[in-house]
Amino acid sequence: MSELQTRKDQAIAAIDAAETLDALEALRVEALGKQGWISLLLKTLGQMSPEERQSQAPAIQAARGEVADAIAARKAALENAELNRRLASETLDLSLPATQAPRGSVHPVSQVMDELAEIFADLGFSVATGPEIENDWHNFTALNMAETHPARAMHDTFYFPDRDAEGRQMLLRTHTSPVQIRSMAEQGAPIRIIAPGRVYRSDSDATHTPMFHQIEGLVIDRDIHLGHLKWTLETFLKAFFERDDIVLRLRPSYFPFTEPSVEVDVGWQEVNANGIRRRVLGGDGDAPGHGWMELLGSGMVNRRVLEFAGLDPDEWQGFAWGLGVDRLAMLKYGMDDLRAFFDGDARWLAHYGFSAFDQPSLSAGVGARA
Fold first, then answer.
1. Do the Cβ atoms of 60 and 42 come closer than 8 Å?
2. pTM of the model
3. E strand or H helix at 7
4. What is the secondary structure of 173-212 as a DSSP string?
5. pLDDT in tens, 141-151
6. Contact (CB, 8 A) for 17 and 76
7. pLDDT tens per residue, range 233-263
8. Rg (Cα) of the chain, in Å, rounded?
């Protein structure tokens, strides 16, 4: 057993002198690994007589324990020394600003949707939604649009080969007006809703895309007239564009779902800001240097539409209006090409996008930028 004592002492001395964790690991394997000298001694115990095993096993087990303890102690010492070295050499200036991590941004369309919901919620409107895959009854017929109406044509509407259970043609909705029909049929009157969402038409250029966003409004109550419509639109546009000089001009027009119908124009002027000319809404369109811009269509809900929705037109009446959300974003935030909204260019979104913290509020202003 003197040989065992000698090898143990030599192993512990080598362990205490190890300079690195790698060197220490090599000594561990040499002594305690599967083929280590202590492991081999333990294996020989099975070949000994009971008397030899009883006399030698305690010494071998004790040597194994002492070597393992020495390895653990040296490992802790080396790790502590490495930590102290790093603490001495690696410094952190807590006064420096933190590294900015990549941060996403809110798409202008989503931002404008939130702004619209905030404004109309303050006016007592609720948000209504409906399916984007519609049937032609809700999309056209219930809105008093004749079978020969141009909007039903294949060149303007995306049709599906399928039909619903009642045999009605299925299509991608061309406006959010079907939401108005569904809301009146399901909720009855009185009703005050806005219907924002995606719509689809076969059209594509700098100001039109096959998929775009629209918002429509509907008010049904007793004794509603065009004065209520004008006040609502004027209040909404002043809040959205954050200007008190918004001037509206209502022109007679025709829509099958409203009667009378009016196109709504808004006064604007061209402003040169930092060498960039842009249209800014505000002021009287008849004033020098100003003009009128057609912004949306509206009118009093047609009696036939009320009947299709299950309401008595002799008891209820109301107004409706609709406009493009993407166009509102372009006018307010200075974008000049609608197609860029859907290109997925991260550089464009980094420039025009909004921080998630720019939540619209009427007290702080619905827009993050003027």
1. yes
2. 0.69
3. helix 2-17
4. -SSSHHHHHHHHHHH-SSEEEEEEEEEE-S--BTTB-SEE
5. 999 998 888 87
6. no
7. 999 999 999 999 999 999 999 999 999 999 9
8. 39
